[in-house]
């Protein structure tokens, strides 16, 4: 890997409404410490990550104040109403040393089980392809439901992927794509979608299915189990 070390933007400004806890899910306890600490620990341990830009909600009183982890700088900024607003704020806040042409990673605070070797593979492959994302091909039969919740149609599963993070793009190109989506009033659910909308075709890099996004309360038990099995 000849690329210079990359900064990683970590959107952590969500409210965790689907979990429904007494605080945003990134601060709920997972295997003895706040979920976000697991995520940041894994990212900072990756030898090719230079620093972390954690995007917090305005007035976040639960953030630990961490400023360094495993010798890497940890900076914070304030996010926005949607995940895409938070990612754009994170990109804008990256240090000046990150040029527009440099790659940056984006990884959800809510994905604590990411494997270091998947990050390495993403960096290796996506840097040669002008950007990409971790994901996994759909393995189940895919149904389209009608409004009554009945199966109306079986969709082809070939060429269908689930999108994970990290996602990796050049800082300037991703910022421009996110700004364009905002101007067009499109709420993009991931960085790759913003890039697709301006004509790019991000590389899909297959990653482990256990890189789950903690989304509901039931995901905590699964994440705790997976954390112990995905240490590298
Ligand atoms: N305005 C937002 C919304 C989400 N996120 C972050 O984006 C990641 C993925 O979002 P999601 O799982 O949807 O988190 P929440 O928005 O917190 O969940 P919910 O929709 O259940 O409220 C999380 O790390 C979340 O903190 C963010 O930084 N800013
Ligand atoms: C970026 C993402 O994690 C890819 O799966 C996801 O789109 C973000 O979660 P959300 O629930 O759509 O906000």
Q: How would you characterize the largest beta sheet?
A: 8 strands, mixed
CATH topology: Spore Coat Polysaccharide Biosynthesis Protein SpsA, Chain A
Indicate the structural class.
alpha/beta
Net shape? globular
Tally of separate helices: 6
Distance between the termini: 18 Å
Overall pLDDT confidence: 96
- Strand arrangement, major sheet: 5-6-4-1-7-11-8-12
Helix content: 25-40%
Count the E strands: 12
**Mind telling me the C-alpha Rg?**
17 Å
Secondary-structure element string = EEEHEEEHEHEEEEHHEH
Which ligands appear in the coordinates?
Answer: cytidine-5'-triphosphate, the ligand C[C@](O)(CO)[C@H](O)COP(=O)(O)O
> What is the count of structural domains?
1
Question: Please, what is the CATH homologous superfamily?
Answer: Spore Coat Polysaccharide Biosynthesis Protein SpsA, Chain A
Q: What is the top-level CATH class?
A: Alpha Beta
At CATH level 2, the architecture is Alpha-Beta Complex
Key traits:
IspD; IspD/TarI; binds the ligand C[C@](O)(CO)[C@H](O)COP(=O)(O)O; binds cytidine-5'-triphosphate; Nucleotide-diphossugar_trans; two-stranded antiparallel sheet; eight-stranded mixed beta sheet; 2-C-methyl-D-erythritol 4-phosphate cytidylyltransferase; single chain; alpha/beta; Spore Coat Polysaccharide Biosynthesis Protein SpsA, Chain A; 232 residues; EC 2.7.7.60; globular
């Amino acid at each position: 890997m000849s690329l210079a070390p990359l900064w990683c933007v970590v959107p952590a400004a969500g409210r965790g409404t689907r979990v429904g806890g007494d605080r945003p899910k990134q601060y709920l306890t997972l295997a003895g410490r706040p979920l976000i600490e697991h995520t940041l620990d894994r990212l900072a341990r990756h030898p090719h990550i230079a620093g972390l830009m954690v995007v917090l909600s305005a007035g976040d009183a639960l953030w630990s104040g961490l400023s360094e982890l495993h010798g890497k700088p940890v900076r914070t900024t304030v996010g926005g109403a949607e995940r895409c607003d938070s990612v754009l704020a994170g990109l804008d806040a990256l240090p000046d040393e990150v040029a527009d042409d440099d790659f940056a990673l984006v990884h959800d605070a809510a994905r604590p089980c990411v494997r270091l070797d998947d990050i390495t593979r993403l960096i290796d492959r996506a840097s040669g392809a002008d950007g990409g994302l971790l994901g996994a091909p759909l393995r189940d039969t895919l149904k389209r439901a009608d409004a009554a919740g009945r199966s109306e149609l079986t969709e082809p599963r070939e060429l269908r992927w689930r999108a994970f993070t990290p996602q990796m793009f050049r800082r300037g190109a991703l910022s421009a794509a996110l700004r364009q989506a905002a101007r067009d009033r499109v709420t993009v659910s991931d960085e790759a979608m913003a890039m697709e909308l301006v004509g790019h075709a991000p590389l899909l890099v297959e990653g482990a299915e256990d890189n789950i996004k903690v989304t509901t309360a039931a995901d905590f038990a699964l994440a705790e189990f997976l954390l112990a099995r995905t240490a590298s």
